[in-house]
Amino acid sequence: MLSQVASFGLLVSFVTLARCQSETGHGLIKYPVTAVNEPGLTAGSSAKRQDAVPLSNGKTGTLYTIQLSVGTPAQPVVVVIDTGSSDLWVNPTCSAAPNQVDFCNSFPRFDYTASSTLNDTGSSFRLNYGKGSALVEYVTDVVTLGSVVLEDQIFGINTDSNDIPLGILGLAPYLGGRLPRYPFVLDTMVAQSEINSRAFSLDLRSVDSPDGSIIFGGIDTKKYIGNLEKRAIIPSSSAPLGTDRYWIYLTSVGITPPAGPSATLYADASPGLPVFLDSGGTLTRLPTPLYRAIGEAFLSEFPDAFLDEPSGYYVVDCSIASSPGSVDFGFGAKTIRVAYKDVIWDLGQPDLNICVVGVLPEDDEPVLGDSFLRAAYVVYDQDNRNLHLAQAANCGTELVAIEKGPDAVPSIVGGCAAEPTSSTPTPGSTTGTTSTTPGSKATTPASQITSSSSYPNVTTPTTITSTFSSTTIYTITSCPPTVSQCPYGQVTTEIVTLTTTFCPGTTASYPTTEKPATTLSISAPCLNCDKPSSTSSPAITGTGSYVPTTPSTSKPTTVVTAGAEKGPSVVRMSFLIIGIAGAAAML
């Protein structure tokens, strides 16, 4: 039965996810990622380019989605890939998604009354995001990705959401606090031997290439340049506001204007600036001094650029997106160069030719969103708490499975050749080449930002090597039904058949003992708002217990239909809306 606030402390016994033995038949799952632009309001005909008001009327963002199937018989659903949250849920309340009702209703919905394998757990929970929230009823049912079938997967069916036009596939680790704890999608993939480790790689692609991919349990060595830089995930005890996310240290930021040379805006290698990587966030948010330094660099390079004070956006001519410059982010020895075309955000107002620099201020929890991730190839390794980064590229397909153990992610140099670049802003960088404009000299501004962060260094676990042979079998999958002229074929799974001779000294596992129901707490600050927030946003509501044993065969008692009217609450979600003027809702 439905409840407004359900108890969800965990009494679940988990199984060991990795075992010390030789195995065959384990593989990976490659799935297409499709970029979908959300609609916005239409700018008034009397708007002027220098006005603040038109900035609130543009496109609300790009969502990176995949299509799943749920239930028996299988029903297609489209969900947003979000590395900033953990839960899978479907069926948003379209009538409570302002300016996006038609967009929301254009996607298929899951009719759970038609599924013969659905079981209602009787527990519900309100999930709060940076903008928006969703009250979900937890059920178990079949979830299908291509030919991979996840039996009895726990996920949520929304009964009352606001400001959210699509369901969400959360791929973050358990965030702690009062959030519900149960086997998430990655956990089930490992438990059912579909993949070897709780790890996946994400390739969002550039704005001029709307299709990317996510590979559960594997990497594609033809989608990046150079080596994969391993960076330890910062533990929650050392992370900003004590949150457990995909935090790593950013050690430098620079800018390479079209005419060169590169200039360093920030550098601190001991240990650096904590940032977390969030595929559910459209923009990048950095501490105010660094945000200003990037903005001032654009003002200096492009005389027509200006700062829109009400919104905090640096407004530029859209033609800048086609310039050869970049904003450069350093992670130790690796520099990820984000081309102007990816960092400049088009607000969808061609008459005004308004674009903005995709960076906003955030002093509490800095985040690298899609405006950064479009230029990066990132491997998220939950089991070993590492992220692996490289410059994204595309020179074919060569799939390799991720194994178990400390060296699970293969240390394979990317198959794509490096492109010529300007001088790097990262001292000691081992990637890229250096060139300058004739007669010019690489310089560093005297006002370079430095940091005296108190965050301790994170020690990377001792590694050992593993060897395995693999045979790649793959086909290209289909797009969501909303994408016309889809270049893909029928949805399938790309499998790597392998034999591994690796036997780790330790295994990744969940506790096998039952845990009593407990009251927990979580800090969920607003990462994507107009201005930096000095306090965290409201905590997740509700505490209690959940026992997924002998599940009920009943269906949820409330039928959720598209457009079901619910009163929106005042909460915020970490992705979705780009509104720029004054009181506009921000990412």
Automatic annotation (TrEMBL):
<dbReference type="InterPro" id="IPR021109">
    <property type="entry name" value="Peptidase_aspartic_dom_sf"/>
</dbReference>
<feature type="domain" description="Peptidase A1">
    <location>
        <begin position="64"/>
        <end position="390"/>
    </location>
</feature>
<feature type="active site">
    <location>
        <position position="278"/>
    </location>
</feature>
<feature type="disulfide bond">
    <location>
        <begin position="94"/>
        <end position="104"/>
    </location>
</feature>
<keyword id="KW-0732">Signal</keyword>
<feature type="signal peptide">
    <location>
        <begin position="1"/>
        <end position="20"/>
    </location>
</feature>
<keyword id="KW-1015">Disulfide bond</keyword>
<keyword id="KW-0064">Aspartyl protease</keyword>
<protein>
    <submittedName>
        <fullName>Acid protease</fullName>
    </submittedName>
</protein>
<feature type="region of interest" description="Disordered">
    <location>
        <begin position="414"/>
        <end position="462"/>
    </location>
</feature>
<comment type="similarity">
    <text>Belongs to the peptidase A1 family.</text>
</comment>
<dbReference type="GO" id="GO:0004190">
    <property type="term" value="F:aspartic-type endopeptidase activity"/>
</dbReference>
<feature type="compositionally biased region" description="Polar residues">
    <location>
        <begin position="448"/>
        <end position="458"/>
    </location>
</feature>
<dbReference type="GO" id="GO:0006508">
    <property type="term" value="P:proteolysis"/>
</dbReference>
<dbReference type="InterPro" id="IPR001461">
    <property type="entry name" value="Aspartic_peptidase_A1"/>
</dbReference>
<dbReference type="InterPro" id="IPR033121">
    <property type="entry name" value="PEPTIDASE_A1"/>
</dbReference>
<dbReference type="InterPro" id="IPR033876">
    <property type="entry name" value="SAP-like"/>
</dbReference>
<feature type="compositionally biased region" description="Low complexity">
    <location>
        <begin position="420"/>
        <end position="447"/>
    </location>
</feature>
<feature type="active site">
    <location>
        <position position="82"/>
    </location>
</feature>
<keyword id="KW-0645">Protease</keyword>
<keyword id="KW-0378">Hydrolase</keyword>
<dbReference type="Pfam" id="PF00026">
    <property type="entry name" value="Asp"/>
</dbReference>
<dbReference type="InterPro" id="IPR001969">
    <property type="entry name" value="Aspartic_peptidase_AS"/>
</dbReference>
